[in-house]
Structure formats: structure tokens, C-alpha cells
Amino acid sequence: MKLVAVTNGRVEAGAWSRVKEIEPLVDSIILREPHMGDADYQAMVEKLIASGADRDKLCIHSRVEIACKTGVPNLHLKEKGSGVKSVKQAHPFLKVGISVHSLQAARQAEAEGADYVMFGHVYATNSKKGLEPRGIDELKYITSSIDIPVIAIGGITPDKLQELQGISAAGIAVMSGIFGDAHPLQAVKRYVKELTIHERSL
């Protein structure tokens, strides 16, 4: 399974080096910084690239024009007002994924040409306090109902990976479990270790 890190809106608060240091160990980093203006967001992306981060591993969140301006080939969209079809038509070189919260939304995303969907939240998580998790059964239903990759997100800790391995999810996305940790690099290593252990057992 792929390991996707998602920034938690605190890159401006000194997380530059943390983003860069985990990049070699993950498959992708979604730069989710909704509080940042476009100019600051673009500067963040350019700084990461200049520091040696792999452009192909970075993923722009929501801002199509910044993906085009920086040459980052990956874009992640929110479910509401996604516009997957129009983005793919205007920018066919972009790999476009989208967050979904139901099978209907996942099927629509697939029909519009999305390259993957991110489904959650699977487990209870502090970032969605008070909201009932959608659970493993719904994740399994979605992975078996569409043909494009499904990335699971929400409350995924290393101890949950064995359960997720048997559901055919293409990967996991982690925000709080990495960037909410005092030592993100060590947190990533724990995920990588568990993923490696369980992949060898398959």
C-alpha cells in the first residue's frame, strides 16, 4: 500500500524541514494548507522544490493554477464543487484525485476521470471530533465497487495497517499521525515498518 502524508495546516509554523525530511520515505505529500494565500502557498511549493524535494511526490491541494505554475503534476480536490472533469479536460497532464465520503461520490469521481479517490474518515480521529467514522465495511464496499484506486484516510495508526491490508485499499493517507507527532520522521518510519512487515506476510 502507498503511504501518503497530508500536511495539517501548520507548515508556516516551522514545518518546512519536516516536510522535506519525510519526503524520501513516503509515496506522496499532499500540501493541505487552506489558511495560506496563493502567493504564500506557491512560495512554499517553490521552496520545497528548490530544497531538493521530488516534484513528482508533491501534490497541490485544490489550487489548479499553482500546480500548473510550479510544474507539480499532482492535484487533490475537495469533494464539494470538485470539477474533476473540467480540470482533466483543461489540464490532461495532471494526475487528479478527490476526497469522497460515499459510494455515490466515488462513482461520480470515477466517471469524471479521477485518477484516485480518498475515502474517509475510516476510524475515529481528532480532526473530525464528534463525527461517526464511516468504518472498514464501507471502505471495503467502495474498494470493491469502483476500478480506480481508493486511498483510506482518517484515524489510521500503525496498528490499523494489518486490518487495512485485507481490504484492497491502494494506500493510506495520514495527517495527524505524522504532522501531529512531535517527531514526524520517526512517525513515518513506524508506518513504513508496519507496511513492510504486513506486505511481506501477504
Structure notes:
The radius of gyration is 16 Å and the shape is globular. The protein starts with a strand and ends with a helix. The chain contains 9 helices and 8 strands. The chain has a single domain (2-201), classed as TIM Barrel (Alpha-Beta Barrel). The protein has helices at 16-22, 38-50, 64-70, 84-90, 103-111, 135-143, 161-165, 176-179, 184-201; strands at residues 2-6, 28-31, 58-61, 74-77, 95-100, 116-119, 150-153, 171-174. By secondary structure, it is an alpha/beta fold.
How many DSSP helices?
A: 9
CATH superfamily: Aldolase class I
Number of domains: 1
Q: What is the ordering of alpha helices and beta strands?
A: EHEHEHEHEHEHEHEHH
- Identify the CATH architecture: Alpha-Beta Barrel
Q: Please report the first level of CATH classification, the CATH class.
A: Alpha Beta
Largest sheet: 8 strands, parallel, barrel
* Class by SSE composition: alpha/beta
Span of the ends, CA to CA: 12 Å
